[in-house]
Specification:
Strand 8 and strand 9 form a beta hairpin. The strands form four sheets. The chain has a five-stranded mixed sheet with strand order 10-11-12-13-14. It has a three-stranded antiparallel sheet with strand order 1-3-2. By secondary structure, the chain is α+β, with helices and mostly antiparallel strands. The relative contact order is 0.11. The radius of gyration is 22 Å and the shape is globular. It contains 16 helices and 14 strands.
């Protein structure tokens, strides 16, 4: 049920993938998390590849430019369909969840925030790097100074919107210049009404989930969500379900279906909504997954940037991947099967997916390091020599 809800019950398009296919993915999963790590490819591109296969890599920037998508703090920094913008206006207006440093700057330096809003209005779109005479010393957030923090206050509170430049830097502009006017003019739903809609959307994307699962999808408070979920059940917008081994109430979307089989094959971003909640991943797939980017290299178990491999309805392997652009090579720095003796089919299907990924990224080769129990079989499947 969870796989079908996340778009893995569908066959990948066989012809040219276009914006309609991408829009269908967004309609189904609702949100794609953004992340700056680029050792393989920007993470926000991978959920589309997992569900659609090769597609034009400029489709997301074009949809942002056309006002079909927008960026905001949803799960984390996220891409969302523009029509959901009103559902986050309560958060923008209340600044709920704005972390301490930004909240403090908003209180202590309102004149700086207003001055930057005026400058963006006059000169936008602008990135922080475009502004001369930057204010304040570097702060604790990746070298953010007060100018950058003030722009982030404007972004969090919805007074500006933003897109990403090719170097991943946010470029800010007035929200009315970036989003369709018809979304900004009507009165937004109440906070309670917005939470109800977000929880229903989370249930549609998950298929089935606990209160924590559904609340986490858009980073809502789990305790506050419990009574809202009960109301949604009473209204018939959600139904109570049961999953063996799961504790507490379980909720399903009324349209969720349990397919007879899943024929999925996909490499999953660490930030894919199918697996981003690690405890849920263990409950659904019996697959323990931890991102080891911030783990010292000698202590890593599987590698720096490890992608789980979905085959059918199981997570059957994981691979540590790097795009060596200078050598035009997709490097498999480690390949690990989940079963003690991975079947030849796992290596063959993984090899096919790696070749497809390399071609999509414009890389000419796939090279496998001798690391992990699946590496030898993967080398044979790729008909490559280990480098």
């Amino acid at each position: 049920m969870a796989l079908a809800a996340q778009g893995f019950g569908d066959k990948r398009p066989t012809g040219r993938v276009d914006r309609r296919h991408v829009r269908k993915v967004f309609d189904r999963i609702g949100v794609i998390q953004i992340d700056s790590v680029n050792v393989l490819v920007r993470s926000q591109e991978l959920p589309l590849f997992a569900r659609l296969g090769p597609h034009p890599r400029d489709v997301i920037p074009k949809m942002l430019a056309d006002g079909e998508l927008f960026e905001y703090w949803a799960h984390e920094a996220s891409l969302l369909p523009t029509e959901t913008h009103p559902l986050f206006r309560w958060k923008m207006q209340s600044a709920e969840g704005m972390w301490g440093g930004l909240a403090r700057l908003a209180r202590e330096q309102p004149a700086l925030v207003e001055a930057l809003l005026t400058e963006v209005g006059a000169r936008g779109p602008l990135a922080a790097s475009d502004i001369e005479g930057r204010a304040g010393k570097s702060g604790p957030w990746w070298g953010w100074d007060h100018t950058k923090q003030a722009l982030e206050v404007l972004f969090f509170t919805g007074r500006v919107s933003a897109r990403r430049r090719s170097n991943f830097e946010r470029e800010y502009d007035l929200v009315e210049r970036m989003l369709p006017a018809e979304l900004l003019e009507p009165e937004p739903p109440s906070e309670a009404g917005a939470w109800k809609e977000l929880l229903v959307r989370a249930a549609r994307a998950h298929g089935v989930g606990t209160a924590k699962d559904l609340a986490d999808y858009y980073r809502l408070n789990t305790v506050r969500c419990r009574s809202i979920l009960d109301e949604l059940v009473e209204d018939g917008r959600l139904v109570l379900a049961a999953v063996e081994g799961w504790k507490g109430p379980v909720y399903a979307h009324p349209d969720a279906t349990l397919p007879r089989w899943i024929r999925a094959r996909a490499l999953l971003s660490p930030f894919d909504s199918l697996i981003w909640e690690r405890s849920r991943t263990e409950r659904v797939f019996d697959f323990r997954y931890r991102l080891e980017i911030y783990v010292p290299a000698p202590k890593r178990v599987h590698g720096y940037y490890v992608l789980p491999f979905l085959l059918g309805d199981c997570l059957v392997a994981r691979v540590d991947l790097k795009a060596d652009r200078q050598a035009s090579t997709l490097r498999v720095r480690g390949a690990f099967g989940e079963d003690p003796m991975p079947s030849p089919e796992v290596a063959e299907e993984l090899a096919a997916e790696l070749v497809l990924l390399a071609e999509w990224l414009g890389l000419e080769h796939v090279a496998v390091d001798p690391n992990g129990d699946l590496a030898p079989a993967l080398v044979r499947a790729l008909k490559l020599n280990v480098r």
